[in-house]
Amino acid sequence: MSTLAPSAPTGAVIRTEFKLFRREPGALFWIMVFPTALFLLLGSIPTFREVGEAIPGIRLVDAYVPIVVLTAMLMAGLQAMPPVITGYRERGILRRMSTTPVRPGTVLGAQMALHGTAALVSAVLSLTVGRLVYDVALPRQGFGYVLALALAICASLALGALLSALARTQKAANAVGAAAFFPMMFSAGLWMPVQTMPDILARVVELLPFGAAAQVLGEAAAGDWPSWSHLGVLALWTVVLTAAAARWFRWE
């Protein structure tokens, strides 16, 4: 019986957070609907459906699939999750939880699991819409794509967990999340796909989590095994950010 006891608080936290998460239509929209809507908007531009000179042999609509997938992750990690946890801190909910068997990792883990699942559903939705509407090929290296997708989700949520740990108020979390969102989206290739960046800029971007994520998702989609160096970058960022979040998390 004692081996099962630690799982009881975790299960209770996850069930409660799931019920609350379902009642947040704004978060669900921005994570699960907005990226696909953005994809449909971009794909409706005729030049996006044509093979251009910027990326030889690839349509822009194909190149933007990993970017749209990463948009959902960043929405989850930087825009949706931190305000929830910092809101708990502001209202004293975390302080009350600190008197129970629940640990900081349980709270962060529950939020990361819920927002990660939402990002994963969004990725599947974007891939499905791309295939049905714009004839975008499904990832040719399936296992490699799943691995890259999982690491990218972990990295984005680890960044969100660190922001949640450091921000003391919802306003601060929203401000920092918004400030970080656009540089991260640039590194993911929203304004300029990584493949079209100058060599020096591309090398710098590929050392960032979402630049590396865009590369491995693109490689797996094309049928190649994701670069181990880029996978390593994602794994390293995930470990470092998660450790920092756990280290600096405060109940109040």
Automatic annotation (TrEMBL):
All residue ranges annotated as the ABC transmembrane type-2 domain in the record: 26-252
Alphabetized UniProt keyword annotations: Antibiotic resistance, Membrane, Transmembrane, Transmembrane helix
Parts of the chain that traverse the membrane: 27-48, 63-85, 106-130, 142-163, 175-194, 228-249
Membrane-related topology note: Multi-pass membrane protein
A Pfam family assignment: ABC2_membrane_3
Predominant location: membrane
Annotated protein name in UniProt: ABC transporter permease
Organism (species): Streptomyces monticola
